[in-house]
Design a protein that fits this description.
- With 424 residues, this protein is mostly helical.
- The protein has 2 domains: 5-51, Rubrerythrin, domain 2 (Single Sheet), CATH 2.20.28; 52-403, Citrate Synthase, domain 1 (Orthogonal Bundle).
- The chain has helices spanning 74-80, 83-92, 98-109, 119-122, 131-141, 155-181, 194-203, 214-226, 234-244, 249-260, 268-279, 285-293, 314-329, 336-348, 352-356, 363-374, 381-401, and strands at 4-8, 16-21, 29-30, 58-61, 66-69, 72-73.
- The strands form 2 sheets. It has a 3-stranded antiparallel β-sheet, with no helix packed on it. It has a 3-stranded antiparallel β-sheet with strand order 4-5-6.
- The longest helix is centred in the middle third of the chain and has 27 residues, at 155-181.
- The termini are far apart.
- The chain binds s-citryldethia Coenzyme A (SDX).
- S-citryldethia Coenzyme A binds next to helix 16.
- Belongs to the citrate synthase family.
- It catalyses: oxaloacetate + acetyl-CoA + H2O = citrate + CoA + H(+).
């Protein structure tokens, strides 16, 4: 992996040779681990030029707009696979055989219920608490119930925790919604598939069990696939950092949920709908694009831009197709927010500011319109992102713990006071 070398010439010091490591695809990396011997650190706020780890799970080519999960393009997984099969792939590295898939699906089904006492945690929240605040709390609280699978050095415990988290996130997410509605929480059903079960727990009540639309369930499953993993993004890096201290998996996933909540990250899907509401009408688009371009205005066009993609986000393309399918299936022919979103995309993508900065719609731009059409309230959008991303987070957590690792502990460039004496 390291047959090439970089040479660092530091004035007045001997040149430093740094190995260059080559992956299977994508950019080489310069291994700077030996740099500390020179008494210097690299400096890279926001990790714009930093590879934090080696991974085999997901590959992104931002220039080509390519996203691969264990080598398979996201477009093919969205079209031909389903979410639980994609979960198996992310967790285990290969697609399951029919028998492996049946066993995996059965295992997940048999872990979808949560401890009855977990319901009491919800009562401490106001009914109008943001669902992501509740999810941070109740997911972290899972570690109080599963003492039998918290030994992170034990591969079996890691496996059990991964299954429990993938299985229970839809149940907890739906419980969060029901709590906000003041409706009874619905138990999961083993006769439904993963996405159907989630929609059942969200929208059915003890008074009436309506059949789940297969089209909406398929759209939900596709949305889960499109959000499943995305390399070393902010929330995944948070989970890896928390995991590197030896924290239990439930605490690590709770940390990932907290990081995802931010509007610059997973909170953007909720922010897109709020932005479209604020724009209100096509006639206001130019004013908002001007705000987005104004350096003195903190407003950014939500759902646009990406740290890695400098081409179209492949997930946004699939999401837009799914959006058209769902709205057509629901007979929604003139969704004003979709019209507005499409017009906004058209205008933004002809504007030099966005073209020069390669700002394209990202995964969050269209997802909210589909979720709203399915009947999911805006405040639940990021919860659904967290539900779907849990398998990515836990796959990276497992990958890190499965080989030698060190606690993540970055250093800094200190620009504060040098030592001074306290003279009272
Ligand atoms: C996700 O990392 C992942 O993989 C994340 C994710 C995943 O699956 O985990 O893909 C999910 O988080 C998608 C992104 C969702 N966020 C949004 O839609 C919020 C709006 N987007 C921006 O906040 C921004 O584009 C980021 C945060 C996504 C990326 O920010 P970067 O990489 O730090 O880029 P930047 O802020 O340095 O922007 C470069 C330039 C700047 O202008 P200049 O200083 O060069 O003049 O582009 C401008 C920015 O001001 N810019 C925008 C903009 N995004 C960037 N200007 C207006 N509107 C925007 N949306």
């Amino acid at each position: 992996m390291a047959d090439k070398k970089a040479q660092l010439i530091i004035e007045g010091a001997a040149p430093v040779e740094l190995p260059i490591l080559t992956g299977t695809v994508g950019p080489d990396v310069i291994d700077v681990r030996s740099l500390t011997a020179t008494g210097r650190f690299t400096f890279d706020p926001g990790f714009m030029s930093t590879a934090s780890c080696e991974s085999k799970i997901t590959y992104i080519d931002g220039d080509q707009g390519i996203l691969l999960h264990r080598g398979y393009p996201i477009e093919q997984l969205a079209e031909q696979s389903d979410y639980l099969e994609t979960c198996y792939l992310l967790l285990n590295g290969e697609l399951p055989t029919a028998e492996e898939k049946a066993r995996f699906v059965s295992t997940i089904k048999n872990h979808t219920m949560v401890h009855e006492q977990l319901k009491t945690f919800f009562n401490g929240f106001r009914r109008d608490a943001h669902p992501m605040a509740i999810m941070c709390g109740v997911v972290g609280a899972l570690s109080a119930f599963y003492h039998d699978s918290l030994d992170i050095k034990n591969p079996h415990h890691r496996e059990v925790s991964a299954m429990r988290l993938v299985a229970k996130m839809p149940t907890l997410a739906a419980m969060t919604y029901k709590y906000s509605m003041g409706q009874p929480m619905m138990y999961p059903r083993n006769d439904l598939n993963y996405a159907e079960n989630f929609l059942h727990m969200m929208f059915n009540t003890p008074c009436e069990i309506k059949p789940i639309s297969p089209v909406l369930a398929k759209a939900m499953d596709k949305i889960f696939i499109l959000h499943a993993d995305h390399e070393q993004n902010a929330s995944t890096s948070t989970v890896r950092l928390a995991g590197s201290s030896g924290a239990n998996p439930f605490a690590c996933i709770a940390a990932g949920i907290a990081a995802l909540w931010g509007p610059a990250h997973g909170g953007a899907n909720e922010a897109v709908l709020a932005m479209l509401d604020e724009i209100g009408d096509v006639s206001n688009i130019d004013a908002f694009i001007a705000k987005a371009k104004d350096k003195d205005d903190p407003f950014k066009l939500m759902g646009f831009g990406h740290r890695v993609y400098k081409n179209r986000d492949p997930r946004a393309t699939v999401m837009k197709q799914t959006c058209d399918e769902v709205l057509k299936e629901l007979g929604i022919t003139d969704d004003p927010q979709l019209e507005l979103a499409m017009r906004l995309e058209e205008i933004a993508l002809t504007d030099p500011y966005f073209i020069e900065r390669s700002l394209y719609p990202n995964v969050d731009f269209y997802s909210g319109i589909i979720l709203k059409a399915i009947g999911i309230p805006t405040s639940m959008f990021t919860v659904i992102f967290a539900l779907a991303r849990t398998v990515g987070w836990i796959s990276h957590w497992k990958e890190m713990l499965s080989s030698p690792y060190k606690i993540g502990r970055p250093r800094q460039l200190y620009t504060g006071y040098p030592q001074r004496d306290l003279k009272k």
